[in-house]
Write a structure and sequence with these properties.
With 445 residues, this protein is an alpha/beta fold. Helix content is 43%, strand content 13%. The strands form 3 sheets. It has a 6-stranded parallel β-sheet with strand order 3-2-1-4-5-6, with helices on both faces. Strands 11-10-9-12-13-14 form a 6-stranded parallel β-sheet. The protein has a two-stranded parallel ribbon with strand order 7-8.
Length: 445
């Protein structure tokens, strides 16, 4: 089976490599000539565990190709996947410019039946627009070529995307015809050998499922952050609370970990887009507005704790940051708490020393020389008046605390991911603060 995937970003490249791993012949298309050239050399534009090896292997074996011209492969493929970006517009809605550009391009060049599959996260109703754009191009050509559209949203977690794609807990496919359903079932058949579910729906439902899923997970995170902040005020331990409610089978334990806010390419964008979709339909998503508001406030929680500890006098302080990516196992800093924290620290007159195992180059691209880039965690702590942990990388779990303490001017540690044991940290000579656990700095109004 042969398919084309347009867009070699996070979703497109992971999808292409995983389909190729299962024996599908995949051509990845992107207008960025430099990116395509690098991919052909085995240079991967994003960090994702296992992806580089998979791309190189399938490229070498001829199942994965890269091109800047859809016309080189469109005559041979049975399906074209659109995996281009849908960045948030100024009003929070999803920008469909790239998605509709793909639809027009397919309509200009297709010569036989195709299934055009939207893999990008798009609002309900996008498939209708894609269908209209293709039909418009065919009409301009005077052609009457049959085609179908489908919606196949991705559910990939950054840092675990390969596993999520190869061993999905479900695959959602929205279709309008039996012909499209049969083709998509054939494509996903290798993934169903271990009884992984393909859930076929109508197209609007498939488009909604993606937004609803991410919004629910974001809601759980913001809910627990709200509970954590209340725990601090009343003397409760949020870890005990989390275990207590997570053991309820109606609730479950996943996404109940409090911290310093969620970020990344999905949750913030998708929550905003769903709020905007509802607004356009005359409905107010009050719960999601609260989820968004809690998260924005939570991104400043470490700075507020630090400011409270130093009684608002941060001018001239040196602050170390461990972690820049929005989560571990990725170099993605989109909507990351680190960006908000750094902005606050700079405004307060601080010098900032940062370290992240993989996101240093991304930070340089975004912030230039506004911060000092350390060579490791101990270098980051050198001369620091406080250390802030923002990302739960494994290599941060068991450092030599004696070395860290000696490197710092003042052994103050604010843990934004509740990674450490408070009693052990105090035994190691640190003034230790975390999220939602007893004996920490209260957050001022």
């Amino acid at each position: 089976m042969k398919i084309a995937i347009i867009g070699t970003g996070y979703v497109g490249l992971v999808s292409g490599a995983c389909f190729a791993e299962m024996g599908v012949e995949v051509t990845c298309v992107d207008i960025d000539k430099a990116k395509i050239s690098k991919l052909e050399q085995g240079i991967i534009p994003i960090y994702e565990p296992g992806l580089e090896e998979m791309v190189k292997r399938n490229f070498a074996e001829g199942r994965l190709r890269f091109t800047t011209d859809l016309r080189t492969c469109i005559d041979d493929v049975e399906a074209v996947f659109s995996a281009v970006g849908t960045p948030p517009d100024e009003d929070g809605s999803a920008d469909l410019t790239y998605v509709l550009n793909v639809a027009h391009e397919v309509g200009r060049y297709m010569k036989k039946y195709l299934v055009v599959v939207t893999k990008s996260t798009v609002p309900v109703g996008t498939a209708r627009k894609v269908k209209a754009a293709i039909a418009e191009e065919l009409a301009l050509r005077g052609e009457d070529i049959p085609f179908d559209v489908a919606s196949n949203p991705e559910f990939l977690k950054e840092g675990a995307a390969i596993k999520d794609f190869m061993s999905p807990d479900r695959v959602v496919v929205g279709v309008e015809s039996k012909r499209a359903r049969d083709l998509m079932a054939k494509l996903y058949a290798p993934f169903m050998l271990n009884n992984f579910r393909v859930l076929f729906t109508d197209i609007p439902s498939a488009e909604m499922i993606k937004y609803a899923a991410n919004s629910m997970l974001a809601t759980r995170i913001s809910f627990m952050n709200d509970i954590a902040n209340l725990c601090e005020l009343v003397g409760a331990d949020v870890n005990m609370v989390r275990k207590g409610i997570g053991s309820d089978t109606r609730i479950g334990s996943k996404f109940l970990y409090p911290g310093c806010g969620y970020g990344g390419s999905c949750f913030p964008k998708d929550v905003k887009a769903l709020i905007k979709t509802a607004e356009q339909s005359g409905y107010d998503m009050r719960v999601l507005r609260a989820v968004e508001d809690v998260n924005e406030q939570q991104k400043s929680v470490l700075f507020r704790k630090l400011s409270a500890y130093y009684e608002g006098n941060l001018q001239g302080k040196t602050i170390a940051l461990w972690g820049l990516a929005f989560k571990a196992e990725t170099d993605d800093m989109r909507e990351a708490t680190s960006l908000v924290t750094i902005e606050h620290l700079l405004e307060a007159g601080c010098t900032i020393r940062v370290f992240d195992p993989v996101a240093m180059d991304e930070c340089r691209r975004r912030l230039g020389d506004k911060v000092i880039y350390a060579k490791d965690i101990y270098d980051a702590a050198l001369g620091a008046d406080a250390l802030l942990l923002l990302t739960e990388w494994k290599q941060f779990r068991l450092p030599s605390w004696e070395v860290v303490r000696r490197a710092m001017t003042s052994p103050v540690l604010i843990d934004g991911r509740n990674l450490y044991n408070p009693a052990e940290m105090r035994d190691n000579g640190f003034e230790y603060f975390s999220i939602g656990r007893p004996g920490i700095c209260e957050i001022p109004e």
